[in-house]
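Q: Got a minute? One more chain.
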Amino acid sequence: MLRRERALVAAAEIGRRIGPSRVLTDEELVASYAGDESEVPPVIPAAVVRAETSDDVVATLEVASQHEVPVTPRGAGTGKSGGAIPDHGGLVLATQRIARLKQIDRANRIAIVEPGMITGELHAAVEAEGLFYPPDPNSLESCALGGNVAENAGGPRAFKYGVTREYVLGLEAVLMGGQRLSVGRRTVKGVTGYDLTALFVGSEGTLAVFTELWLRLVPRPPRTATALALFSDAAAAGRAVAAIVAAGLTPSVLELLDEESLAAIRARGAVPVPARATALLLIEVDGEAELVELELERAAEACEAAGAVEVLVAQEASQRRALWAARRELSRSLKAAHLHKIAEDIVVPRTAVPEMIARTREIGRAHGLVVATYGHAGDGNLHSNFLWDDPSLSPEVERAVEELMRLAVEMGGTLSGEHGIGLQKAPFLAYEQSPQLIDLQRQVKAVFDPKGLLNPGKIFGRSGHGAC
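A: Always. Here it is, folded:
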C-alpha cells in the first residue's frame, strides 16, 4: 500500500477511536499544517489529528505505529528550524487544544500545564500570583509551552535566568506506539535514576509527545528597569557587553542590535532611535528596587567606558513596553524590508561577539547579501539574518549559511542557541559533532522510537530513519 493511502487508513481508524471531528483530511484544511515560521518549504501531510486529550495522543501514536505511518508533533507552529514540518508526509499530531493550566502551586512554586498553553498566558497567570516563569521566547504571545520544551527555547532573559531546561522539573509523555511515561519529579531536588527529563527537553519531538509539563517557578522580581545604550558601531556595543560581564553584573537582558536592525525598527516607526546611533544595547535589570538602580547605573558606566554615545533610561512603563514591542517585532520588520530573509541563531563565546558580527557582515558582502545581526549578546546567542531581493541570489545564500555555520563552530561556538536543529540545520550537524556522537544519539532515538516514525528527518537529516 502506498504511504499516503496507508496514512489515510490510519487516520480513519484514529477517527473511529477519538471521534471523526478531530481528524482532518480535507486538503485545504490539512495544508494549513504544512509549514512553520522557518524558511523550510512546507510539506502537506495526509491527515491532521487535532488532539484534545492525552488519550487522543495515545490513540494516535498507537494506531500510527501499527500502520507504520510517520507522525509529526506540532504545537503552535512558530518554530524557526522546520521542526513542525511533516517532511515524510503521514500524520500531523497537533496538541494546541490540550492547553489547560491545571495548577499553580504557590507554596512549592510549581505550575502544572498542558503543552498547548500559550507561553504568554502562563506568564500572566503566575505573575498574578506573585510568581515568575522566566523563559521568554520572542513569540511568547503565540508560541506553545510544549514547543518551547521540545526546542529548549530561550529568549532575552536567558542570560540571567537560563533556558527552558532549567525550569522543567518533570513531564508526562507518550512514546510512539502509545506507551505513557511520567519522568522527573515535583520536588526541588531529586537524583533518582537517569535524568530523562533533561533528555526529553530539546529533543525536538523525535522521542515522545508531551501531554503534561511540571514547571518550576521563581518569585516575581519586585522592580524592573530598562535602558538603551547607543553606540556608533556594533563592535563597541559588543565590547560593552564584555565590560558589563567583567564588572560582575548580571542584567536580566543584554540585547544587541546592529545598524541594519536599527534601520528596520526606524522604518516601522515603532520607537524613535536617535540617528547618531548605528548600534544599541537593550539592557534590563530586575530585582530589589535599590539594587536595580545601582546595577543599571554600573551597567551604564560600563557602556560609557566602552564608547557609548548615550545611555537612555526608560522613565515609564509605556516606554518600556514600546521598546519591547519593537524588539519582538524585529524579525518581521526585517522581513518587511526585503523580499527574502533567512535567519540563523548561532552562539559564540560572548568575547567573540564583535568579531562574529564583523565576519558575518563580510560573508554577506562576499555573496551580495544584506546582513542584519541582533540577539542575546549576554550569552553570545546571535540571530544572523541574510536578506536579499533578487531570487537569483538563492545559491549564494546557501553558501553564505554554510560559511556562517562553519565559522560559528571554528570560533568555539555552536550551531543553535534556541531554535533547534530541525530540518534547516540538519545538514550542518557534522560540523560540530563527531560521527561517533551522532551515531550514539541515533541509537538513543532508536530506543524510544525503534521504527523511526516520530518526527523523522529532524536533527539527523533524512538518512537512518525507518520511515524514509
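A: Residues 249 and 295 are 7 Å apart (CA to CA).
Q: Perfect, thanks.
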